[in-house]
Request: fold
Amino acid sequence: LFYNTPARRKFLKSTQTELSHISDVVFQSALSHPMIHFRLSHEKKGLIDVPAVRSLGDRILQLFGESLSDETLEAHGESPFAVSEETAPSGSLDIFLSRPPLRRNHRKDQYIFINQRPVKSPLLTHAVYDAYGAYLMKGEHPFFVLFLSIDPGRVDVNVHPTKREVRFQNAEPIHQAVRKMIREALSSETILRGADSNEVRAFSSEGRSGGEARRSPSGLQSPWAGWPEKVEEAKTSYLAEPAGRGAEKPQGEGLGISRLPLIRPLGQIYGTFLLAEIDGEFAVIDQHTAQERILYEHFLERRVSGNGPGAVQPLLVPQQIDLPLQRAGILRDALKMLEAFGWKIEEFGETTFLVREVPALATKVSIESFLLDLTEELAELEVSSQAEQPILKMIASMACHGAVRAGQPLTSEEIKALLTTYFERKTPPTCPHGRPVFIKYPLPELEKLFRRK
Reply:
């Protein structure tokens, strides 16, 4: 091995370290070539032995095990660019990724392969994290394996001496394709219903007939099996459906039991957390993050539907806002974006602005605090080709400032309205900033905590 480079032999590490490097190479080769049988042994001890299989998914099951494979989603599509326009009219893009909610606080087990070769690509990694967005809690990292086949002429492999890091000739379509594919997979209703663990998840009562006996997920009889067929509509308030219960509701989604889990509000503690039984399971809900997610989804829906900013509230006396010079420049660039969501803000000097109108949902917002936080977030925004990133930042900030705060007492009617709206909309189980909305404790878990089983 070192006949032509004897000096390199002096720089070898310990046997265990070098074995680890060798294992990584064989592992990644096996991962990207499922049709080949790989074996690796050391001192007659087998380290890797994976027979040939037909699919990438089968190979992931072999190498990562059943527990991780069961929590993995698949997304498949065409590559933005052909592998070879003569031999293959279109390449492929295959992604295997973690199902939310995540429990990983490290970046291990993240693999990118281009034309079956392991590489590092900040662009593709950024696309994955950008796609997860609010599904990632702070400090969490996804597992993912990404396979991209592409015309080799569109990839620059000479960025790094080891040829492990690559750059693309036209990066934008690739970034968009990866991001779109992952977002579609994560936003599917199946994922929201399937993320059941002792963490956050969305509940659904689809498929249940109104008259059948209700049972909890543990199989025990629900304590309110006689719950009425129709649930009385929750009282409308600023905690419930954002724009009034009517125009904004998708067709066919009433408050009947067929669309909602069985919700039994129990109360509020510390002025911050709501206690409830949801489909026979005990749940603790963060009131701020729950409504924050509701508002965030509402603003997104209005943007996608093109229905405009919704109701606005003129201020009797325009509020004057003074910002530091740099922040003022950022706000000036964002005025049109804010106007599209119901904010009417005029320049009143180099660093002074007059706020004349606000969205109806933002009447309780501290305007100065909102604009300061928004300009700070926009200033820290990474330079990216994603034109919608500033919009999403603004929407998240509006939702955060417009939501009920921690420490604010709620009446039983307001608690019921908030929980009903949240579960009716089947929103993702985290707020836009990645914090969990609720944590559930199924009966078996409570029995374990109290050593009853």
Remarks:
- The first helix runs from residue 6 to 9.
- The mean pLDDT is 76.
